[in-house]
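Long-time lurker, first post.

We've been arguing in lab meeting about whether zinc ion would sit comfortably in this protein at all. Half the group thinks yes, half thinks no, and nobody has a model to point at. So I'm putting the question to the forum: if I give you the sequence and the SMILES, can you give me back a predicted structure of the complex? Inputs are below. Any interpretation is welcome too.
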Amino acid sequence: MSKFAEPMARLIDELKKLPGVGSKSAQRLAFHILRSPEEDAGSLADAIRDVKARLRLCSVCNNITDVDPCVYCSNPERNQRTICVVEEPTNISAIEKSRNFNGVYHILHGALSPIHGIGPEQLRISNLLVRVENGAADEVILATNPTVEGEATAAYVARILKPSGVKVTRIATGLPVGGDIEYADEVTIQKALEGRHEL
Amino acid sequence: MPLKQSEAIVLRTYPLREADLLVTFFTRQEGKVKGVARSAKKSRRRFGGALEPLTCVRVYWEDRERQELARIDSCDVLQSPLSSEVDYPRAIALGHIAEMLDEVMPDREASDTVFRLAWSVLQNLKAGQVWLPVTYFDLWMVRLLGFLPSLEGCVVCGRSLGEELAWFHALSDGLTCHDHRRIASSEMAVSSRKIAAAMFRAPLDKFIGDPWPRAVAADLRKFLMQILDRHLDKRLVTSAQLDKLE
Ligand SMILES: [Zn+2]
Ligand SMILES: [Zn+2]
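Top reply:
Settle the argument with this. Predicted structure of the protein with zinc ion, as tokens:
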């Protein structure tokens, strides 16, 4: 027997499925929802329903979007011939914040992860290949994470793009701006030295 | 409690709460140790790239009374997998070493032999040459775990296999001669048994430089993986990925 009325227990159970939400937090959130005005609870429920009903993947770049193609792929102001490949949709906002990139994206929705059984078939690579083979790109920038998984993914994508002849580049790794060399680890310093350029 | 320290290999990390990482190390001093690296997920400052799986490190930790998880204090990188080229086959091979050690080694039980094996394999595992170190690692691991049958004679009649083809089967232990092979057995070439014998006599770096395409000793690797599958009662995720590599 649950110590809560059935609808309450059900809400707590659903909230517990969210990442980072334990039993205590789920109870707190559930009671907050119970105490909030009818319309607040209603708009939360609507927002959840909407996100599932209206969001899908962009057919060109796999970004999460409510219009297809997405805002980047349909924007004539952006350079549609430079494609930046990232692991996750959330990576886009980090790159956009820099305001230094005016190309378009391709989202793989993950990285090659042998230990988790994630191979090339589990990633969304095929429509990138189609874009490139159709001659829609001058450059593909590989902006996967500088981890073993991200590097393996970049190497894999570079290899399958090679026959198309498109220019493939990898983002640089090295010291963080505003950082101190003294606090950088050995690998970061090694990468920074490898990526040095002449002044 | 005082800090302990050891050379170690980072096997796996899992996100824990908002900012922390749960890390499994294979240490030289105490075998497999699990611990929490506070704030390692949110801030890279304290641990940098040291917690990337398959990094060889010196780890400093504190065991806490009545708690299974240690507190990871700090980690110095001795050798990072990222300091040489990473391609997909190498990533799978690295993952294979981590998965194997994580699956077969018990918690808090040191094995200097396994540690030295894994350490030397990691130093020699480079992009474009994964099959030699993977074969060497699998062969020695299966032997050190005590699972390796004799490669010299038929398990049924005991006859020496000498310069003959040998046979093995997914569901039974050991090699057989031609006469005693089961239906649907696989072949093992004489050359592969010779490779195994040579690998038991010399360290891995003695073989470096020999060309080792995937086909070399592929039958031996299949034999070893079938032994492991039977003993672990499951297939390692990374064994399946190695199988799929061209
Ligand atoms: Zn798009
Ligand atoms: Zn026999």
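For your lab meeting: Chain A has a mean pLDDT of 92. Chain A touches chain B through 27 residues (CB under 8 Å). Whichever side wins, do check it experimentally.
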